Structures are given as structure tokens and as C-alpha cells.
Amino acid sequence: MNRPPGMMDVAREAGVSHITVSRVVNGHPSVRPETRARVEAAIQKLGYRRNSVARALKSRRSSTIGVVIVGSELFELPRILLGVETAAKQAGYWVSLASRQGESTTGDLVETLQRLTDQSVEAIAIVADHPLAVEALSGLVLEVPVAVVMSGSVPNPGLSFVEVDQELGARLAVRHLLDLGHRHIAHLTGAPRIFDARARVDGWQAELATAGAEGTLLEGDFSAESGFRLAHRLCAAGTEMPTAVFAGNDQMAMGVLAAFAERGVKVPQDVSLVGFDDMKGSGYLVPALTTVRQDFAHLGSSAIELLVRMLGGDAAERQKIAPELVVRRSTAAPRVDS
Amino acid sequence: MNRPPGMMDVAREAGVSHITVSRVVNGHPSVRPETRARVEAAIQKLGYRRNSVARALKSRRSSTIGVVIVGSELFELPRILLGVETAAKQAGYWVSLASRQGESTTGDLVETLQRLTDQSVEAIAIVADHPLAVEALSGLVLEVPVAVVMSGSVPNPGLSFVEVDQELGARLAVRHLLDLGHRHIAHLTGAPRIFDARARVDGWQAELATAGAEGTLLEGDFSAESGFRLAHRLCAAGTEMPTAVFAGNDQMAMGVLAAFAERGVKVPQDVSLVGFDDMKGSGYLVPALTTVRQDFAHLGSSAIELLVRMLGGDAAERQKIAPELVVRRSTAAPRVDS
DNA sequence: CCCGCGGCCGGGACCGGTCCCGGCCCACCA
DNA sequence: TGGTGGGCCGGGACCGGTCCCGGCCGCGGG
Fold it and tell me: Which residues form the HTH lacI-type domain (chains A, B) (predicted)?
């Protein structure tokens, strides 16, 4: 029943007061080197470790950042989380997790935030896949800095946002196809309630417009299955086949590839294909997939860095990360004879 | 500068003592219903929320479980984490994250564990991809219940383990191939330092042995790239081609598919292919991949449930989860003419 | 009528830190 | 030699809960 040693115990051992121990632990300057050494020896001897709960209670600084995950469809969540955890550790913070799956009533998110602040977290990062999930935040007065990792925004000046520029990514993809000579580019979009999907549609449309090229829009849900289904529909349609397809993400692109294989449509000879995400293994699809890479780890670490700056007094801020086109084998110039 | 209301404030408002407030909050029976109502009204009015840090300090129960992630190569980490978070929430616990990437000195893990217990976590789950990462735990006396999510074990009776039965998974895959009539089954293994990879090799070998079939073993690292490289080597070898390939995981299987496509080897007509994991999209590879499904979310939630039981006084335990073979289009009977 | 008992409630001592404030000692200078 | 200022250290009051212990009051039995 011997509980771990406290500052008092160390103090007794070193023949000083608990205050002095506190000073040593916190690197306070006004302690004589010799006293400091004695205290450190005592700490060593007793195996003393500061109780961070007590510290958090008094100082109101818990050194932890809360992360809430809303929506479980986030395929690339792990990479984001990795970035978050790494950056937080770097900055001396812990990460406390809270997720909210399934149906999201508005009050639900607020409740989660509450429970997190009950925990005395110093800041909160929310990673969400669609704005509806966080609309509850619109007018809310925040007790701590909050950063949202999501495309799209919510009208609340206290909120920071981090996102990769989805529209730019889409433009990059379409521009690449246009440069290759394609004049009819279909887009198989992801679930429209997800902002990323909408932004990609916008980018696709905008780029198409600048070139005066033709487009076909089909609506899926980011799953490989939907890509598969949509690609079949594309082939079956009475209308003219596009010469290029821009899939909502790499998963959908996989579905497209599968459908085209069944239909005998050759990629990239018959139609070019571009994905989005650059998921693990995309380079080893057949053919290797041209896609738009999003740096998810960077997304996560940026959110934390933003939060740390806000903790330092900076204002909320909006940050866009540029995605990167990676050209592989699934895109080529359209056939001249078509 | 008005800090949030405390029990004292509520007590004053309700005309009772802070003790009674505590009793109400904790659902203690001996409070008159009428008093309880008055206190609850006061709580409502002031928007009181219990300070969980103070609670943790005094009661030594933080209601949080620490999770340490060691090694970042865990492809399916997110699904595990999801299971962890869900189960923890279910049981009324928070999840505090700590990861340890890169090179792992032995003391490093112990330090991470220490920092976690400094946080007063009540239990710890470690998810690791290879036993070396946690060897530091072998003789350690644990302050709190610890469960390891990993194949393989470490000689420490205080530790619980949760794993999916990799060997069984491998046997399922090989058995399927054997049943189809294959007599020469190559295995492209993942990084051998990872225990999962070794267990799969064992299963493959054991099943081969019972059938007296032939095998070829090539060593990769779980990446699509390594699958690609190894498949090429398989084709280039002077020796006879196997009629079936069991890849270390679905990523490697993707690489194999890519290599076979270049070589003009048809799957499953020329050679059958089985993967492992059933990653997202595996059903839409060309051809749809036969693979072994691991239920990662279940893995995570099992770990938490185990921990909760240990918190309740149960002994450490070892738990194996059975994987499941999912047969798709990449496997078929070998050609009779070969 | 008194005592005992049980339901309800309050006093107050912690938990293990942080931090303001104030006191000691000693060197330095007038 | 006395004053003073600064470096070093300690006392003690919190932070906001939990929980042991003990007091009050009303009721039933001896």
C-alpha cells in the first residue's frame, strides 16, 4: 500500500522543502547548483515522478489536446492521426481521443466537446469528413482553441481550419488530362454531402470551362463498388464515351478499372483514368494509377501547430495545403482516330 | 476571470453542503428526493460540470486508458483504433494516445509507459507489429493492467495478449488452394522481423506438409513494391513456376498482380493468388482477390474488454481471434495440362 | 419515557502539486 | 559598522473534488 513518492518525500530525503523540489523539477533558476544536485539525487533515489494530474488541477494546464473524429468513413484517418500525434508530442502535448460515429445529432458534438473540456484539454482538433457534422459549432463560444480538419467551413470566426485544397487538386488532374488532349472528361464524384467531393466537382467544372471541354458527371460515394457501378453505366450509356475519367478517389478508380476490365475497355489506350488520394498501392494497380496526392500526415501536424500557435495567443486562421499530381501509367493522349 | 462553477457554488445555490452535491452527482442513495431535485436544479442553473481532473487526483481513477502505438507500418491501424475507441467509450473510458515511431531503444518503451502512468491512466493497451518492439516488457513489473495487441508473446505473466490467429489464416488460405488441386504453392512473405509474417510462414509450411505439397518461399516486406519484385523473380527463375501464390498481404498481392500483368501471366488461369487482410478495395482488384479477412476493429475492442476485465480483478489472458477466408475470383483449379 | 437505530446530511482532512509572499543570509558600499 | 539589495529558500493557501466520520432527528420497542 505504499503509494508513489511525492514532492514531500523527495524534500525530506534531500533535506529541503517541497517548494525547492518543485523549483528543481520545473527548472526554476534560483536554486543553488549544489542544492539542485542534492534534490536531483533524491529524485533519482526515490524514483520520483511528478503527478501530472495534480499539476493539471492547480495550474489548469493539462498539456493535452483533444482530438475528435467524426464520421468513420475517413479512409486516410490513420495518416492524419499519425501527424497529429507526432506534432503534439513534439510540442509537449498529449492526445486524448474521442470519436463520434453514426448519426450525428447537433447537440451530440457539443456534448463531446464538453466532455473533452471537462477533461481540461487545452485545445481541440476536430477531424471531420463533412461540414454537416460540425455545423453545431457555427455560433458556439469556444472555451479553448479549436481547429477543424476538413474542407468547407462553418461561420465561426473563432475556429481554425486546415484542409488540402481539393479544388486545386481537381484542377491539377483535369489540367493534366486537358494537356494530353482530352476534350471530354467524365467525373465520378464521391458522396456529395462530403465537402471534398463538392470541391473536386467545382475544380473539375472550372477547369473544363476554361478549356471549353465537355464533361459528364456521375454520382457515387467514394467506394470501389460505386466506381465499378458508375463505370459500367458509362459504358452502357447511349451517349458517346468520354476519353478520360476523373474518379472521386483511388478506391473508386479501382472500381472503374475493374469495370473497364470486364467491358474490355483498355486504360489508358481507350480511356485515361485519374484518381485522388494516392493511397497505398496505387502505384501497383494495373495500370499504375495517375492520381493526386494528399499529404495527410502534414494535415494532422498542421492542425496541431495551428492549435499551439493559438494557445500562444495567435488568432484563428485558415490554412490550405496544396496537393500534388503524380503522373503514372493510367493517363495518355486520346486516340487520334476517335 | 470567472472560473467555472464548482461544487461549492452549486451547494450554496441549493442551500446544501458540497458533500450533498457530490452525492447527487455520483448517484449516492442516501439523499432525499426533494433535496436531490433542488441540487439538480442548481446544477442545471449554474451549468455545473464535474472537474474530472480533481476527481482523478483524489480518487486515483482517471477513467482513461492509454494506448501506445509502436511502429508506424501498421497499415490497418485505423480500424484497430476505431475498435479501441468505441469499446473504451462503451466502458466509460477515455483514450489517451502515445506513439513511438522509428528506432526503438528498449528503454524507450518503458519511458513511454512511465509517462502514461504519470498521466494516471488506469490501464494500457500496446499495439505493436513486432515482438522486438515490446521485448522491454519481458521482466517488468507493471503498475497497471497491460494488454498487447500483437502476434507473438513476451515472457511476462502479467501481460494480456490479443491477436488474430495468423497461422490459422495461412492454413485456411493454403488449404483452399490445396482443395483446388494445387501442388506447388509459393509464399511471398512479409518482413520476417514481424511476427505475423513468421506465423503465416509457419501455417503455410504446416499445411503444405500435411498435404505433401511443394513450396517456394520468397522474402519481402509487406509492400506492394516487394510483391512486384518477388513476382518478377518468380517468373524469371529457372525453376518451375508454382501454380499458386500466397502473398504476405493484399498490398503484396497487388504488386504480384502488377508483375504478372507485365509478364502476361493470367490470374487465376495460369496461377492462383491469395492475399491477406481483405483491405478496402480488394474485391475490386482485377481479378477480385481471394484473401483472408482479419477483423481489426474486433481486435481493438477485444483488447479494451480484456483490460476492463483485468481492472475488475481478472487475471491476464491470451486471446486469439479467428480470421476468415473470403473466396473471390483470383483462385481456381490449376490447369490440367501443366 | 428513554434509548437505540437508521436515514439523511455536514465538517473537515486529504490528494500532490503551484505559486505568492515573506524571511534569511551575505556581500558590497557608504 | 550599519544599511541595503538580491539570491536562495520555506510557509502556507489554494485547485476541486472524495470520503471517513460523526451529528441530527424521528420513530419504534422495551
Answer: 5-59
